[in-house]
Amino acid sequence: MDKVNCYHCGDDCGKKPTEYDGKNFCCNGCKTVYDIFSTYDLSYYYDLQSSAGSTPNVVDGKYDFLGEASIIEKLLEFNEDKLQIVNLYIPHIHCSSCIWILENLNKLNAAISSSQVEFPKKTARIVFNPELLNLKELVILLARIGYEPYISLDDYDKGVKKVNRSLIYKLGVAGFAFGNVMFLSFPEYFEVDEFWLDQYKDVFRWLMFAFSLPVVFYAGQDYLVSAYKGLRSKILNIDVPIALGILALFIRSTLEITFDLGTGFFDSLTGLIFFLLIGRFFQQKTYSYLSFERDYKSYFPIAITRINGDNDEETVQVYDIKRGDRLLIRNEELIPVDGILINGRAQIDYSFVTGESEPVFKESGDKIYAGGKQMNDAIEMDVLKTVSQSYLTQLWSNTVFREDKSSKFQTLTDSIGKRFTWAVLTIAFVATAFWLYYDSSKAMNVFTAVLIIACPCAIALAAPFTLGNMLRIFGRKKFYLKDTQTIEQLAQIDTAIFDKTGTITTTQKSSATYQGMRLSFEEESLLKNTLRASNHPLSRTLYDLLAEHNIVPLDEYQEHLGEGLEGKKDDAHIKVGSADFVGNLLDANPQNTSVHISSNNIYKGRFVFHNHYREGVASVFKEMDETLDLAILSGDNEGEKTRLEEILPKLTPMYFNQRPNDKLDFIKSLQEQDKKVLMVGDGLNDAGALAQSNVGIAISENVNVFSPACDGILDASKFEQLLKYIMASKKAIKIIKLSFLLSFLYNVIGLYFAVTGQLEPVIAAILMPLSSISVVGFTTLATNLLGKKLI
Amino acid sequence: MSVIYVLLTISIIVAIIFFTAFIISVRSGQYDDSYTPSVRMLFEDELVKPTPTDKDSSAESIENKNKSIQLNKSQNL
User: Fold this and answer.
1) Which residues of A touch B33 (CB under 8 A)?
2) Domain boundaries, chain A
3) Is the Cβ pair B75, A40 closer than 8 Å?
4) Which ipTM score applies to this complex?
5) Which of B 10-29 lie inside 8 A of A, CB atoms?
6) A659 Cβ neighbours under 8 A, 6+ residues apart
7) Which of A298, A310, A304 is nearest to A339 (CA)?
8) Which of B31, B42, B71 sits opposite A168 (nearest CB)?
C-alpha cells in the first residue's frame, strides 16, 4: 500500500487518512488547522513549504494561569490598556512557512496588530490589543494552529532582555578609523619630498591622531582593562603584550607627530585593533536557539492549580506554593514540588530528570518528586517541600552553578602569552641597553619599536580563528559547543563519564525478551489485538515488537489505568499488565520494567523490557577505552549491570543508584586527582555533574527540546562520532601551535628591523597585516581540511 | 585657504555619514537577526496582495470572520 502523508504535517497518515478538500490528513487536528488557514486565505502557507505544520495539541486548562493579571504582567514586554507586546518562544518554528504564517497572524484575528518572527531564536514578538484578545486567548490561538508557545518559569520576571551590541560598535569604530587613517597615511608611505605633502603633513597627522583616539580608548579598551586586571592579579595574559603594543604605538606616534619626528604608526595601531576585534567577533559564534544556561526553571511551569478546600480552584505562582497546599496536576502538567499523591492514578514521566521515558506508576500515598510529568488524568497531591527545597531543585543550591567555569581555565593563548611577554620584555631591555651604550639617541626608538613589532596580533588571532572555525564545523556536524574555550578543554580530556539512561540508551527504541511459557498462535494474536487498543507507551512498544497478526475485533476490552489491559475474544481471555494485576505475586526480577501476561487466568510469563543501547555504543567505548578512562554513572538500579558488562570494555567501572548530588561529588573527587573530566549526560539529574565537569556534554535526541545547562549539546545521531570530535579538538590545538610558530617567524623578521633601529612605519604597516592575514589564512585552511575528515 | 581642507572636510563628512548610518542600523537591531529578513523579503508580495484595493471592506470582512473563530467558543474541539 502506498504511504499517504498528511498534507499539513507530513506524518504518515496510517491506514485511514482523513480526507478533506481533496487532501489527506493524518488526524482531525491537522484538518482543522488546514481549514482555518484556507478560510482566512492563508493557504499560501502550503505553497512555501509542503507539510510544514505540526499537529495541534491543546490540553484544556493548560493555560489557565495566563488569566492571572500578576503573571501576565511578568510575561509582557510592554503593557498598556490597549496595547500589549509579548515575545513568545515557539519551538516549532523551523521553516519559511512558519515565518509567513506567524507574521500574518493579524489575518486570523484582528486584535493582533503585528507580529515579527526572529527565526534564529525561534521567537515571535506579537503586538495585540488586550481588550479584544487576552494573552491566554492568543496563546490558545497559536496552539490551535500548531504553534504552541513554550512558557516556563524561566520566562517569569525576565522582562526585556538587553542585547549587548558593544562588540559590533567597537568593530565599526575600529574599521571606520582604520580605513580613514590608511587613506590619510598613504601619501607619506612613498617618502617623496613633495612640496604640498610637506606643507600639509601636520593636518594629515593630527587627523590620524583624532581618528585613533576612539580606537584606543573605546574599541581597544577591553585589551587595556584585561591587561590591567591581569597584572593586578599577577597574571601575564596575552592581553599584556597587546596592551603594551597598543600603548607603545599610541604614545610613540603622538610624540613623533608632536615633535615632528615622523608620521607615527597610527595606521598599524588602528589596523591592529581592527584585526583583533574581527578575531573576537569571529570567535563569538552563538547558537541563539540553543541555550547552554538552562536550569530547572526552563522546565518548570509558571503557575499551578491549587485546591483550597471546597473544590475552590485557584491558580498560584509556583514560588508561592507552601508546605501543606493541595495541588491539582492535570494531564501533561509538570509536578513542580515534592509531595504525596492523594488522589488519582499517577503515571509520571521523569524523562526530563532521568532521561528514562517509561512512565512510573504511583498509587495514592506514594511520594512523588518534582520534575515528573503527569501522563494520565488529573491527580491531586499534598505539598511536602517548596520549589527550591525539592529533591531535584536543591541541586541548584550547590556552588558549582554560581561559579564561572571559564575563569578557572587558562587558555593556550594565555599560557603562551606569559612566556611571550617575558621574552619581549627581555629583548626590549637588552636591545635598549645595547643602544644606550652604542648610540643613546636611538635607544628609546628601539625600545618602543620592539614593543610595537612584537605586539602579538597574529598570536592573538590564531586561537579565535582556529577555534571559531572549528566551532562552526562542529555545529554543521550537529555538535554544538557553548564557546571556543570548550574546544580547548575538550582537547585535554583524559576521563569520560557517561550517564546511562537516555545517554547511552535510546529513548526511541526498546527491546523486550519473553520469559515463561510459550504463547500459542491464538494467544499471541489476541495479545496483539488487545494491545492495539491501548495508548500506553509499553503497550505501543510491545505491539510493535510482536509479529504481524490479523486484526480481529475483540468481544470485550477493558483498560485498567495503571494496572493493565484485559481482552476477550470468544472463549479466550487475556490479561496484560503489572504482576499484581495478572496474578503473579512472585515477581522474580522487579528491577526491570516488565509486562506480565496471563491467558484464561493461567499465568503465562512476562516480557522484560531492556534499555536499547545506541548504535555503536560498544565500538565507541572500545575505541575510547584506549585513550581515556571511562566510567558509567547511573541514577538507576543495577538491573542492567550484566548487559552493560557484555557491551562495554572489561572492567569499566559502573556506579548505580547515584543521586544528582552524588554524581556531582563523584566528578569533583576525580578532579581532585587532577583528572580532566568529560561528562556526558542528558537529564536534569546530570546537571550538577555537567556543571562540575571540565566539559559537560548533553546528548539530545532533538536539539530543540531542552537539555540541561552544559558546555555542549551533541545530537544523539552523532553519538558514535564523539571520539572523533575529541580527536579533532586535539588537532585544532596543534593547528594553533603551528600558527604560533608562523607568527613567531614574522616576529623574528620584525624584531630584526626593530632591534637594529630601522623600523619604518611602512614596514610595520606591511608586516602586521601580512602576518595576521597569513595566520588567519593558514588556520582557516587547516581547520577546513580537518573538518572534511569528520563525518 | 587651500582646496585640500575642503576636500578633507568633504571626505570626512561623507565617512561620518556612513558611520552614523552604521551606528543607527546597529542600534535599531538590524544586526540582531540576520536570517529572518532574508526569508521575509521573498514573500512580501503575497503579503500585501489583498489589502490595497478596498481597505475598509476587507477590514470589515476580517472582523466578521473573526467572530466565527472566536476562541472561547471553538476552544473545546
Assistant:
1) 118-121
2) 1-50, 64-155, 166-285+408-465+731-789, 300-333+338-384, 472-505+614-729, 507-612
3) no
4) 0.70
5) 11-12, 15, 18-19, 22-23, 26-27, 29
6) A635, A685
7) A304
8) B31
Let me know if residue B73 belongs to a domain: no
pTM above 0.90, yes or no: no
Can you give the three-state secondary structure of A468-512, one letter per residue? Answer: HHHHHHHHHCCEEECCHHHHHHHHCCCEEEECCCCCCEEEEEEEE
The structural architecture, per CATH, of the domain A507-612 is: 3-Layer(aba) Sandwich (3.40)
Q: What is the model's pLDDT at position A86? A: 87
Which of A28, A32, A120 has the CB atom closest to B35's CB atom? A120
**Which residue in A44, A109, A118 is closest to B46 by CB distance?**
A44
Beta strands across the sheet bearing A629-633: A479-481, A712-715, A695-700, A677-681, A495-498, A629-633, A654-655
B76: in domain: no
CATH number for the region A64-155 comes to: 3.30.70.100
pLDDT of the residue at A476: 86
3-state secondary structure of A620: helix
Q: Which residues, in sequence order, are CB contacts of A663 under 8 Å at separation 6+?
A: A499, A633, A635, A681, A685, A686, A688, A689
> A206 touching B, CB under 8 A?
no
Any B CB within 8 A of A618 CB: no
Please name the residues in contact with A144: beta carbons below 8 A apart, sequence gap of 6 or more: A32, A33, A36, A56, A58, B71, B75, B77
Residue B59 resides in a domain? no
Instruction: Mention the CATH class of domain A472-505+614-729.
Output: alpha beta
Q: Residue A272 phi/psi, 5° resolution?
A: -55, -50
Domain assignment present for residue B31? The answer is yes
- Note down the domain range covering B44: 1-52
Q: Give how far A194 is from chain B: nearest CA, Å.
A: 15
What integer pLDDT is reported at residue B53 of this predicted model?
A: 42
The stretches in chain A having pLDDT less than 50 are 1
- C-beta atoms of B27 and A196 within 8 A: no
Q: Please report the pLDDT score of residue A509 as a whole number.
A: 57
First to last CA, chain A: 35
From chain B, the residues in CB contact with A140 under 8 A are 71, 75
Supply angle C-alpha A470, A476, A482, rounded to 5. Answer: 60
Residue B67, pLDDT > 60, answer: no
Q: Do the Cβ atoms of A210 and A252 come closer than 8 Å?
A: no
Q: Do residues A303 and A315 touch, judged by C-beta distance below 8 A?
A: yes
Which helix (DSSP H) or strand (DSSP E) does residue A33 occupy?
helix A28-39
**Which site among A47, A104, A119, A211 would you substitute to test the B interface, given the most B Cβ atoms closer than 10 Å to its Cβ?**
A119
The CATH number of A300-333+338-384 is which of 3.40.50.920, 3.40.50.970, 2.70.150.10, 1.10.1040.10? 2.70.150.10
User: Structural domain tally of chain B?
Assistant: 1
Task: Note whether A623 and A516 are within 8 A (CB).
Answer: no
Write out pLDDT tens, residues A51-65.
777 777 666 677 777
Pairing of strands A379-383, A373-374: unpaired
- Residue where the block lists cell 555533574: A689
Helix A239-258, helix A443-453: angle, nearest 10: 140
The CA distance from A310 to A316, in Å, is 17
Residues 6+ apart with CB under 8 A from A528: A543, A546, A547, A549
Q: CA-nearest residue of chain B to A99?
A: B40
Say what angle helices A457-476 and A412-438 make with each other, to 10 degrees: 160
The rounded distance, in Å, linking the Cα atoms of A611 and A512 is: 9
Partners of A326 in beta bridges: A382
Q: Which residues in chain A are closer than 8 Å to B35, comparing Cβ atoms?
A: 119-120
Contact yes or no for A223/A276 (Cβ under 8 A): yes
